Task: structure prediction
Amino acid sequence: MKETKRMHPLMIPVSLIRTVKELFFLILVLFVFNWSSEALWVTIGRYLLLGYVLFSIVRYTLKWWRTYYHLTHSAIEIREGAMVLKRRHIPFDRIQNVQIQTPAYLRLFGVTSLKIETASGDEEASFAFLAITRTEAEKIEQALDQYKRDTHGETDVSETETSEATVSGLTSDHSHETKTIHFTPTKKELGKAFLLSASYLILFPIIFSFVQQLDGVLDIMRYLEEAYTFISDSWLLLTLAILVVVLISVLFGVVTTYLKYGRYEISSDAERIYITQGILTEKHFSIRKKNVQAIQMEQSILKRWLGITGITLINAGGDAGDSINSLYPFLPTKRAISLVSEMLPNFTITEDVGALPRKSLVARFCRFPWFWLIVTAVIFFFFKSFWWISLVLLVLTLLQRYINYRYSGFVIHDEFIQLQEGGWVTSTLVTRRQKVIELSVEQSLMKQRFGLASLATINRSKPIFTQKLRDIPQEMAAGAYQWYVGNGKQ
Result:
């Protein structure tokens, strides 16, 4: 366990690739957009950039040569640095997440990247093994899992800060439990992902941006205008051109959708939920079931009409906004709910959250539309001919408030509370009382006059995850507060 090792030599090109990505725009300016320029600033910039790249190669080589790590029974010891050596001691009980990502160029060599994140909030909160063999990555995660099992046993994360969520990807075999595969997308479901993700529309802004950048160098707009004039003179050529553009955009959307969701899989065993995705760049991770603090379900208006729901697992130590915590985002609502029940039988989700009273709608309509007022003032003073935009914005504001009222509500059943906030995107949170670290009720003067209040719950995540529901009857808010402080007894 105490054998000292270096990372894989591919750490050097991986670090260099990251540097080139960071300098990509500068490279375009100096070597593409001004490729024929002899200006002094361009020449100096090129030499400085090349010098920096050469310096980076030397620095990354030294850093690889002088960076070592080894595992003890309870920590990872790291010695790193190019010019200045630094020693780090990372205890296993401080590690919250372990993320593993394998781009295609690493997979060819049996190498992956592994990142560990601790509970610290400073710049040393994480450490990345940029290139490490899959075998070594598996050893690190197995050592961490064994430590957590030996030290914490069945301790729930709500009772200790050190039993945090672990995200992994190479050790799907480390558990002695048999995994159950809950979901893999069919061709029909991949088709829904293709249509709803609108990936086929991404190609147009990419091409437009690229043409704009090249126009200053190659005067490409002149050639495009000549081509357009030639094609538009014939309806047959114009039709064929439109078909070609549509075909290319559809093909682009199909390929990007397949690369992202083609090998998507959700599975679980008695201890964890596993999610695998990606073809060119593989992403593997797992979430401990005991560390799931809440379930968040989101629906845009289009998804709501089609009966499709996206689900995110809010877990302790995980990033509340990170896509790695999200299940397949294009699941039918009933299937999404049943999937959660299969993997997390301790969570109960109800589709009936109850409706808010009419006074909640009246209160929403009575709030002054400040944004509409500001936009209207700008239009009145500077763009009077666009006065109609003010009317459209007012209608949309009132419509949004009605939709927000129509799809908002909350319900308490046994030890669970479920908050649903409506709008153009409806967000529903389901959590247990024991997982809520804070519940607050607040009233403004206006809410007091209507007998309403706002209710908010906070769950442990990184950063903490807050769900708020406005304009519920104050007696219902008071009941929720008593339910929380009374250990689940409403």
In short: The radius of gyration is 27 Å.
